[in-house]
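Pipeline run #58 for the internal structure catalog. This entry was flagged by the ingest filter as a single-chain record with no existing model, so it goes straight to prediction. Upstream metadata was stripped on purpose; only the residue string is passed forward. Reviewer on rotation: M.T. Logging verbosity set to normal.
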Amino acid sequence: MNAMTSASTPPLPAVREVLVVLFDDVQSLDVSGPAEVFAGAEHDGGPDARTPYRVRTASLGGRPVRTSSGLTLVPDLALDEDTPTPHTLLVPGGHGTRGDRRELVAWLREHAPRADRLMSVCTGALLLADAGLLRGRRVTTHWAHCDRLARDHPDVEVDPDSIFVRDGHLATSAGVTAGIDLALALVEEDLGRDPALALARHLVVFLRRPGNQAQFSAQLAAQTARREPLRDVQQWISDHPEADLSVPALAERASLSPRHFARAFHAETGVPPGRYVERVRLEHARRLLEDTTDSVEAVSRSCGYGTPEAMRRAFVKTLGTAPAEYRRRFRPAPPVRHP
């Protein structure tokens, strides 16, 4: 009886080891954000299911490290020749990536390729690049360091816009909280959609952002205009994406000639008015597709596209996917209602 029961019971999934690299002046949220995601994940397998991840931390020599915010972290392990090879090796970022990290880079160069999955948060990508682990790969990092990464490592394809990027077994994310988005995406990849969504709700993450979501909102990506009429126009655009947002209409609202308005808007915000409008409308449409059940046609009208086809062209051009497919991939499933 016991033998038959044992033979018919499927084996529990293997525990995935997650090793987080620590160093002085590391950004604490780059460590704790993803660590909380992996540590909080659960298999959708009932109360007897095994914890799917074991998260451990390690530093050179096993020494405690001081984060950039002043917190002291005591690692579980030392980074040396005998450090166990993890399933996922997580390299966080922070001010400490800018100093002399030759010993840490040397360890990464030798040991990181053995991990099944390599993950960086923020400027952790700079350490991986210095170790020669990003050659020929598509990656991202914090927006403020994308130019540096591209300049110092011309053999690396840097995506300055996405909040995280997957390239084979390599996963890189933008700054700080983007590490949570990437970790949630990896949990979904490992365990499935429902456990990842349950975890996101538990962590009170309002929205699991897709990797190709911009690091900035349209409003943050542009500068705030200095002059009040132009600032008011920026706010009007954000509040009324369905309105007539042509240059003549916006210029009239700012009490300027169309030519003067277009030049002044570009000079003060860093982007032409037409491009700014495109970004706002696309961002608004994405939110509606993610958060509502409105039809694609209704969304296109409320965002000022006029027709679903116009919105589809904007989505394909910028995101590489049609609105309906975007919604299918990124809108959370409704909660299951039990009688």
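catalog note: The first strand starts at residue 16 and ends at 21.
catalog note: The two ends are 36 Å apart (CA to CA).
status: ready for reviewer M.T.
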